[in-house]
Amino acid sequence: MKENSDGYVRADQIDLKSLDEQLQRHLSRALTLERKRKEEEQEERERARPSWEIDPSKLLIKSVIARGTFGTVHRGVYDGLDVAGQTSRCFFFSQAFQQSLAGHFQKMLMS
Which residues contact 58 (CB under 8 A, 6 or more apart)? Predict the structure, then answer.
């Protein structure tokens, strides 16, 4: 492209094929970077989650089954499976209790 002294370019001097190729390379690079960023974010979320905690984006809570002193039991669907899950009113669990829960839930998921 030749630019005159006024900063204008004649339309017949623009190499559209070259511009199209540059745009394709740029978009491809941008999409690749975006995809990689999303994958890294997903991996980080999975790493940060304790083993007993599920991915909330896969859970659909439907109805309340029962309420108790320590929490509420709900019916729902997790990753396509019918499930019942408890939300707890306790804000603190000891490390030993968390590990016990993790083992219990892992056994349930594998059966």
Answer: 78, 79
